[in-house]
User: Fold these one by one.
Assistant:
Number 1:
Amino acid sequence: LIQKVEMSSRMRWVSIIYTLGIVIMFSAIWVNMLLPLMQTGEKPDTFYAIFIIDLAFIMPAFAILAVMSVRKQGLSLILLPAMYVLGITLLVPVGLGEFLKPHYGHAIDWAGAQLYLGVSASFLVMVVLHLRSLRVGGSSSIRA
């Protein structure tokens, strides 16, 4: 069944470019945050685990699925929406958490909140578009 999963070429390329954009964007953000800490020998206070998980597992998984999509491998077409949902579940709490900071004596990072919630919204759009365009063996779209 996985070998029969297909989607339009246009949507597949939108998904590939979007996924690689996510990899580039978050890898650049995390590396730019880590470089000054590496130069001073400091350990990040709060996001240490996120750096490790994202740079060692999440971003490589996105990149691998993008490459698999370039190769038109059906498994990637099924797993990419799952990765987008994972992105939503990881980023929405971080974005909403910004609004709790005043309760703990910290200022809201509006740019961070917008980034995390904006990317979460884009993940949601991609999930819907991606799932609507999936087809099995030339049949109509997969719909629940």
Number 2:
Amino acid sequence: MCNPDEIKPDPIPGLPEELPEGERILWRGGPDWKALALHVFHVRAVAIYFTVLAVWKTGTALAAGRGALDALASAGMVVLFAAAALGLLVLFAWLMARSTIYTVTSARVVMRIGVALPKTVNVPYAVIGSAALKLRKGGDGDIPLQLTGQNRAAYLHLWPHARPWRLAKAEPMLRGVPDAAKVAETLAGALAETAGQPAPRIQTEPAEAPRRAPMPGRAAMANG
């Protein structure tokens, strides 16, 4: 059994140990809980589903000759279930945002993730083949990191901090980051500096765009 007294706090928030000499923090932050609620837990789609279900319940009850009060009571049960489900999803999103710390240093990306069992994921720039920015209208966005060669990460170990549907070769992803364009620019500059390249100019695309905008990392960056 885990002894809480034996759990040591992080020496630096989001980092399991002090930074090596010469390494510096360039940016540190976390996801916006509203972005997680909308784009990870899909609360908007869930709300639409329950709304359609409530309308259908009301319509079928009235079509069957039941009274208006009976029809509304039937729909009311759906509303109660909807409120409970949406409340839980929003709570999960808030807890996840509160327990997540992303750190971009001059040598790596560090992801402090996990609500009940926190864990740290280190992604050195040496294993990042490409990075991209998926920007939304509100300014928040996702930054997936494609790993090179035989470097692998377990999708379930990372979820939801992983690019969706890349199960065979999971890509760690900074999700729902506020002011994502600025964070992406900082990361791209660090990747370019590590590779000995000039800092690139970041081009972004909206989240609905079919392709993502790649950011240079090491010697050459491929489109995702």
Number 3:
Amino acid sequence: MSSRSELVYELKSLRKGRGLAGRIEGRVGPFLRSAAGVTENDAVEVIRTKVSARLSELAAHLPDDLRLAVLAAFAIETEARQPLYQDRVRWAAARVDRDPRTVRRRVDEAIDLLAELSVSTQTSSATSSLVSGWHTAELRAWMTLNRSRAECFEVRTIVADSEGVASVDLALSGYANSSQIDVDRPDYSTVTIFQGGILRDHWIESSDRIGMTLELPHTLHRGERHQIALRFESRNEPSFYICVPRAPCDYFEVSVRFNDRIPEDPRVLEGAFQRDVTDPGFQGQPSKVDEAGEIKHRFRNLTPGLSYGLRWSANSRSGAQSH
């Protein structure tokens, strides 16, 4: 079984009985302990606090109905601390005006998402701390769709978290599929470096994502800041601009300027799962195009592995992601 499926199993076992409000000795499995940062020396109440805090933190990224259902299921929601799981389900059902069977399905869905989110963020955090040695202090992006080709300018300020950072790995998603990429051409990725480094390597990570290594002009010392400016050019008309940070990102600001086909229902995605970006069933938060034909939004303290940015209607389902 994968770590995700193991975590799902442990969470479904933990919701039984009184959930986290009851006896948890031996009921918090190794995968959940790892996800919550539980150590061998932690007392029972410390374990309860850590697991409750971690599940609450992850649940904050879920839609309201799923968040309420899963917090009730584990007896984290104070008002739902009933002695039996079915009692907590009935409490949640009354709160969301649904029958208990529907709420049980939502609890299962929420647990699957919590496990996915936990594994994704743990993997991203481990990768960023052990491999990259840097994080993004600030990322500003401007995309324009009022030309024959969509263009995006990114200015990124990075900070070295370790000594001797000589290069950074970035990724570009959604501008072209793999059948359109000629990896032998230096301009395959339609990327222009304006400031901050030299494009030294590139590879296809997936059908819609290109990885890039940018060599810095000098090696960074721990705590040193460095600015990188890039331009991306799209072969298709994008329908989103999303930042999915691999390493922590303190601040992200994005502005999209549209052509005369102003989208009717633009949306803000904040802390969404990557699969939600192109899922028409995931709504996000409504946004508004201003009188200049632009949408602007700001995000702070982005979680690695989650998606932040803008989505809109377009003729093409293509888009752009920065990592």
